[in-house]
């Protein structure tokens, strides 16, 4: 009951609902939409700069060389999810339409999120260094792997092109600020250690910005009005069940594989996410001449559910007692 009460009254979760409602009623358009995009990118870059400043070079290196953890996360993203997506075919046509199934399968093929995976790992006091490497690497290779999976498993036009700017965007917006944070660490790490509020503010603020931008864009593209209400309800139920299954597999799978608690949090958050930021542009390229708005609807719904559910999980783990001796893994508050 205490967990339920804390969850219902959690300010961060209430903030996500409020921001989603606000964006649905007053979506950003025109200049405001451009400004929102830039503010969101700046907030995410600042988040990674702070992560870089908080992590010691030794901890960052430990995150990079943790190949076993990264391999399992990649397997969840590009093997487990696609297998579950193919299994959902049994729901057609009795439960979901062909177009919505195409969207369900597509969401299972897109890369993991970067910013929110790392932010939730940070909030839950997990291995942030491992999350940075896993989430970033998953997103980078997803630029190539996702189109190949779509071609292999789905019917598309076949005219798939890879935009090199996608990789450049990841480097400039995520990895470069992280490297800058590492460089300025000697001058700012003491202040950041004494003041955890800036990191928490940027963690949560960047997630709220992503939610607002996603709902705003969906309203501008009339995604919600393109399908019947009862079908949206069915997609919500299927996405919720899919997320619950993957969360269960990643959490208990991490325990079975013998990962440390902080690494299990990385597997939980990075292995269960799907990226709206990567999925939407890919869908626009891969599904030319097809109902793109309807196809991306499951991804849009799954993205919001994963943010809300993982908010609850991250806040729950954030309230656990501090260990008597900090582990070698870097844990961002």
From TrEMBL:
Lineage, highest ranks first: Bacteria, Bacillati, Actinomycetota, Actinomycetes, Mycobacteriales
InterPro entries, alphabetized: Na+/solute_symporter_sf, Put_Na-Bile_cotransptr
Source organism superkingdom: Bacteria
Protein name per its UniProtKB record: Bile acid:sodium symporter family protein
Key word Membrane present: yes
Gene3D superfamilies reported in the protein's UniProt record: 1.20.1530.20
Record keywords, A-Z: Membrane, Transmembrane, Transmembrane helix
TM region(s), chain numbering: 12-29, 35-52, 72-92, 104-124, 131-154, 166-184, 230-253
Entries under Pfam families matching the protein: SBF_like
């Amino acid at each position: 009951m205490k967990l339920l009460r804390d969850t219902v009254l959690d300010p961060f979760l209430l903030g996500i609902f409020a921001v989603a409602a606000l964006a649905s009623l007053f979506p950003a358009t025109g200049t405001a939409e451009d400004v929102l995009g830039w503010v969101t990118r700046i907030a995410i870059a600042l988040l990674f700069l702070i992560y870089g400043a908080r992590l010691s070079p030794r901890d960052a290196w430990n995150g990079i060389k943790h190949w076993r953890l990264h391999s399992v996360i990649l397997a969840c993203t590009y093997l487990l999810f696609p297998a579950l997506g193919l299994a959902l075919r049994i729901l057609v046509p009795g439960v979901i339409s062909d177009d919505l199934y195409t969207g369900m399968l597509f969401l299972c093929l897109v890369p993991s999120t970067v910013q929110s995976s790392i932010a939730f790992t940070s909030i839950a006091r997990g291995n942030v260094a491992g999350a940075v490497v896993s989430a970033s690497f998953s997103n980078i290779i997803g630029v190539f792997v996702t189109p190949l999976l779509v071609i292999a498993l789905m019917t598309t036009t076949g005219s798939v092109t890879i935009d090199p700017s996608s990789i450049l965007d990841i480097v400039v917006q995520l990895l470069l600020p992280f490297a800058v944070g590492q460089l300025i660490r000697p001058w700012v790490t003491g202040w950041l250690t004494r003041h955890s509020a800036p990191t928490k503010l940027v963690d949560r603020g960047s997630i709220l910005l992503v939610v607002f931008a996603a709902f705003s864009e969906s309203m501008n593209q009339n995604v919600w009005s393109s399908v019947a209400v009862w079908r949206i309800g069915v997609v919500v139920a299927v996405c919720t069940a899919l997320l619950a299954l993957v969360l269960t597999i990643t959490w208990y799978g991490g325990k079975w594989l013998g990962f440390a608690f902080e690494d299990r949090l990385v597997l939980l958050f990075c292995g269960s996410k799907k990226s709206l930021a990567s999925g939407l542009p890919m869908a626009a390229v891969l599904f030319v001449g097809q109902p793109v708005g309807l196809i991306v609807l499951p991804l849009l719904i799954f993205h919001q559910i994963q943010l809300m559910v993982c908010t609850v999980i991250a806040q729950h783990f954030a309230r656990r007692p501090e260990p008597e001796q900090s582990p070698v893994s870097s844990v961002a508050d």
